[in-house]
Amino acid sequence: MTDTKLETIKNIIHDRVLSIPDVSSVYYDEEEQVVIITVDSEDDEPRIRAMLPANLGGYRLEFKVMKTPVLFSRTMEYRPLVGGVSIGHHLTSAGTNAVLCYDRKTGAPLVLSNVHVLTPILSTGSFGARGDPISQPGVLDTDGVVRKAGELLRWVQPVNGQMYADAAIANPVVEVSDLILADDDDYWQVKGVAKAERGMKVKKSGRTTGTTFGEIVATDMDTKAADWQGNTIWQLLNQIRVDISIEGGDSGSLLLTDDNKAVGLIWGGNQNLGIASPIGYVMSALDIGITSQEEQPPEEIPEQPPVEQNWYLWGAIGGLGVAAFLIPVVKNIRF
User: Fold this and answer.
1) Listed residue (81, 48, 84, 82) closest to 63, CA to CA
2) Which of 14, 56, 177, 262 sits in a 20 to 30 Å window from 303, CA-based?
3) 260 in helix, strand or coil?
């Protein structure tokens, strides 16, 4: 049963106590019969203790260390950089940082996202240049201020207007974590890769809509990608269609199974429709592993594709994001 006297004391003092700088919380322990005040660090305790009486209403005070809780926002700066948060080329807006990945030749850690997130293709009509600054958060979320987290490295470039993966990688210039922000202070860790299958239950963590869940409904979709004005940018072949909540800014989100295996890289969609490039195509095109340097892609780009595979080495970024949002078009219908 609640100790009403302790509860009353807490209710009386909480406003004054919480107004003291470096105090993070106040609560009580009925079993120990103490009032507990938490401070941001041990160094703060002597100063704060001197400001308060030795006991309150006959109950002694006890001090513990707990940092003041921070409200999580996917558009804030993250150091170390994690997946599922805002990022983008310094000339674009903002997208989603997918996940830490690895160069299969050198083992160097890299960050993964979309071409249209890590390059300025939608804002300038060009792919930019190697070494272009990547901002985390994306500049849409910083009032135009570039908070450099990496530099553009390489991306998949369409040939004859077609490609198999909207994907790019970059070299981080800040510390990067292999975790993906889920809900609140929870995180996902990628446990490998898998080939997408129809009916597979999946999830994603994106800048705009956060954590959402859905189901793969197709794995062989050939589609057009259009910008917000309806202009066709390029065609993407053999893509994954998933019924999942998604909005602008979620581009670059990693598509995962329930057991945290990567199956695709989301590049666009509309409301409850998401389109993703198969993770094997992404890995093959960029010569990367998702969880390790040695990891092999679960599927390969077709040996005789309608267009030749073409990827460019240019730049480096610490975390990729979706700087813009592409809209898939099927049979000339924009979703």
Assistant:
1) 48
2) 262
3) coil
